[in-house]
Automatic annotation (TrEMBL):
Family: Belongs to the CDP-alcohol phosphatidyltransferase class-I family.
Gene Ontology terms: biological process: phospholipid biosynthetic process
Transmembrane parts of this sequence: 44-64, 70-88, 109-128, 134-155, 167-186, 198-220, 232-251, 257-273
Species per Swiss-Prot/TrEMBL record: Georhizobium profundi
Protein name: CDP-diacylglycerol--serine O-phosphatidyltransferase
Broad class of enzyme this protein falls into: transferase
Pfam families found in the cross-reference section: CDP-OH_P_tran_2, CDP-OH_P_transf
Region (Disordered), start-end ranges: 1-34
Gene: pssA
Keyword list, A-Z: Lipid biosynthesis, Lipid metabolism, Membrane, Phospholipid biosynthesis, Phospholipid metabolism, Transferase, Transmembrane, Transmembrane helix
Protein's cellular compartments: Endomembrane system
Entry-linked PANTHER family: CDP-DIACYLGLYCEROL--GLYCEROL-3-PHOSPHATE 3-PHOSPHATIDYLTRANSFERASE-RELATED, CDP-DIACYLGLYCEROL--SERINE O-PHOSPHATIDYLTRANSFERASE
Keyword Lipid metabolism listed: yes
Length: 294
């Protein structure tokens, strides 16, 4: 099959614009006639959430590099920065009314890097590599679980949700999974000797966190806390300031306590879900006369 020769005007246009025009909401499967003329320019406001997402990916990948260079403390900080930026981009998009399908797909890919690949490789470089192949398998299991959890979240987000899903996640969210899986790193910097025994325990713990990611466990999301009473605004601000100060002063202890408290709240959230949404339906009573007819 021969290629159609381009005329001079078409060739000049191709050389002047080697990249196709970008429209974050444009569907490549649609024709220009169906969608109208393609956008030649977009506002910088539309690009800001995507720029934040790109910065989050850069932070996560930089954390991996720092971990393999032995600078684990900076690596963990970069992973936390990536998690913070990843949580900010969606809110910025909603506040600036610049949400797009392109940004949603970009954010999903960033989640796999920042909450799946980056924490797993940081943990492997710090501790799991002492268990050789078993440690690598545990890291792989966690990354696969994070990818499966994010894929399931994307699919469920497109379907009608049950009433209880407005207040609960299905399984541990990927950002909290990244915080939990790095618990052995926090404990290692608090005095636990990163030896073979600790590495073996970290393998089991990593697999446990991977299971929590893909499980059907109802996890309280906190979405119901939409507004704060006026009399509680100052206490909440003071509590946030104290937590940030502790995080900056005692980073490893604060992160370890945060992870352990979050793990402790999982059974409590499940019991609350059972009381509110998980009660078994009572079967209708059958009278003696009806039983005789059966």
């Amino acid at each position: 099959m021969t290629e159609r020769p381009r005329d001079d005007a078409e060739t000049d246009d191709f050389l002047d614009q080697p990249f196709s025009s970008f429209d974050p909401d444009h569907d490549e499967g649609d024709t220009d006639n169906a969608m109208g003329p393609r956008l030649r320019e977009i506002s910088f406001r539309m690009m800001i959430p995507t720029i934040i997402t790109v910065l989050a990916i850069c932070a996560g990948l930089t954390g991996i590099r720092l971990a393999f260079e032995g600078r684990v403390e900076l690596a963990v900080i970069m992973v936390l920065v990536a998690a913070f930026l990843d949580g900010v981009d969606g809110r910025v998009a909603r506040l600036m009314k610049s949400s797009s399908r392109f940004g949603a797909q970009m954010d999903s890919l960033a989640d796999i890097v920042n909450f799946g690949v980056a924490p797993a490789l940081v943990l492997y470089a710090y501790l799991l590599n002492q268990a050789e192949s078993l440690g690598w398998i545990a890291a792989l299991i966690y990354v696969l679980a994070a990818a499966l959890r994010l894929a399931r979240f994307n699919v469920m987000d497109e379907r009608p949700k049950a009433k209880w899903q407005s207040n609960y996640f299905v399984g541990v969210p990927a950002p909290f999974g990244a915080m939990l899986v790095l618990l052995p790193v926090y404990l290692g910097h608090l005095g636990f000797e990163p030896g073979p025994v600790f590495a073996g325990a970290a393998i089991l713990y990593t697999i446990l966190v991977a299971f929590l990611l893909v499980s059907r466990l109802p996890v309280y999301s906190g979405k119901a806390v939409g507004r704060i009473r006026r009399d509680l605004v100052l206490p909440v601000l003071i509590a946030i300031a104290i937590y940030v100060a502790l995080l900056m002063s005692y980073i490893w202890a604060t992160l370890a306590v945060t992870a352990l408290i979050y793990l402790a709240t999982l059974p409590m959230g499940y019991r609350a879900w059972r009381r509110t949404y998980g009660r078994p339906k009572v079967a209708p009573t059958v009278s003696a006369e009806e039983q005789g007819r059966l």
